[in-house]
């Protein structure tokens, strides 16, 4: 008869093996399916398999293959779930839940919760097993170093998972040890998220000492937890800890926001604590910058080409951590999000309608000649015409622009063939890694922290030796062939802290839209509601005067199958040009102001994020149950199984 711990160990190893097929080559190894628990962590190889299984579990649909990489990061001011109009109120689907009309009965909430806490349980087992291992306590220097790295990985994985739970649910149960066989420590109530984040940061301090830099040890690529990612994750947690959060109840000594709910206040910690957290974040962001292990790829376009090609960048290592995925096994990046194939095509197969969309005001917000616009915003789809795949520009579809960062046209032949040979509505898995931190985020967080501590151009002890302005400029300038206009822009935003902070908020959108980070940054800045209302107001203003009724464009080829994106006249005909200079045209976003039926402005626009900002045309809070209710409810099934320890807040039912 196996003990409970032996059974857990067997499950760990079996699930680890099943996950290996869905991850990158470094995970491809084997081990016996039955090993006594006490022996698992007396072997470097078995311990490595347990750690590898953590990465495999992150590749599940209910973790980062679909939900947390694509769906749960919506809605923001520029990113929308693909549900508007009546769909935006459907609480049994992601379309209602991500428009903030969430329901504890939506089954996906329980699935995500269970998957994430399953990873945490595995990490807890690994950390405890490694700590108690003779290899760690009295082994050779080499054994202790290797086991220490494994512990550092488990600590960092656990911190990342808990952080994402906090960002989506608020206060959650904190459990940092394996489950007892008598289940005496299984039923746990909520822990204040500040307490949990403080613990996570301390854990990451330990992990940083144990982990190598990416590339420092051959097997530690950016598909594994490394020192650089642990530094950056700690900084991100520190900034969230210092930021605004909706609370279940007010905390004494905390600052309360003007925009707040009467029952569930929006608060942040006191000024002295915030300064300490900014300094802590600065230390870790500076460590990444001065390490020279991570850099911006010189080309934003090439950065996304490599991601689509599933090529790990060993030159710049801009992506500090990518969750490893496996083609045909995991990752819906490029299928559920990305450039759309509208129906079956002979060249590229098909993909879904695109769960995440971008908006017309966002596309219009880009500065002229920003190379990120046409890589991020795909205002077209690919269709089959006369046996050929052709690009078709979308018309009056202001809330339906696809996220172009994942692009079937840029994928490997292996992926294109997979998609082309998958017929009908069958889902295909791209194997494209889920990027959890880019170096551009490090620079933008650094610019934010330095601005808080020293202003746009000041210096500060413990910094990386560059100003906030210099860090922002590095991100901004990559997107341009630098011109006098861009130099003037950068100079104009370095005058005061507020102006500079607003520029960081803008740069965050231009750089990161579609990647699942924007909403959470807006939340900690307490700008989510404000920015969504601004997007709605901007749309109405632009639709009623600025948007073109018709846009014109050219093709790159004689057969008219490929659009010249740089030719599209989104903002009117250029000086010296006439309509005869263009191959084709399409009715655009401004056309609705001339018609009697205004579906986009009068039906679709009010429905967007209606559970958060209300359902009036511009969103005035009318209809929103709780102000600032961006957090998800705990699933009803989770509450019923919690032995009375869990309940919902923020006006949600149990």
Structure description:
The protein has 654 residues and is an alpha+beta fold. It contains 25 helices and 17 strands. The longest helix is centred in the first third of the chain and has 29 residues. The chain starts with a helix and ends in a 14-residue tail after the last helix.
Shape: globular
Largest sheet: 4 strands, antiparallel
- The portion of residues assigned to helices is 40-55%
Beta-strand residue percentage: 5-15%
Give descriptors for this structure.
single chain, 654 residues, alpha+beta, four-stranded antiparallel beta sheet, disordered N terminus
In short:
This protein has 654 residues and is of the alpha+beta class. It contains 25 helices and 17 strands.
Write the layout of secondary structure elements.
Elements: H1 4-20, H2 37-40, H3 44-58, H4 61-65, H5 67-71, E1 79-81, H6 94-97, H7 107-132, H8 134-138, H9 141-169, E2 172-173, E3 190-191, H10 193-210, H11 227-242, E4 245-246, E5 255-256, E6 266-268, H12 271-291, H13 300-309, E7 319-323, E8 340-341, E9 356-358, H14 360-365, H15 373-376, E10 377-378, E11 380-385, E12 388-393, E13 401-403, H16 413-420, E14 434-438, H17 439-454, H18 468-478, H19 484-492, H20 497-512, H21 518-524, H22 528-546, E15 550-555, E16 563-564, E17 584-587, H23 599-607, H24 610-613, H25 636-640
Parallel strand pairs: 8-11
Antiparallel strand pairs: 1-9, 2-3, 4-6, 5-6, 7-14, 9-13, 10-13, 11-12, 15-16, 15-17
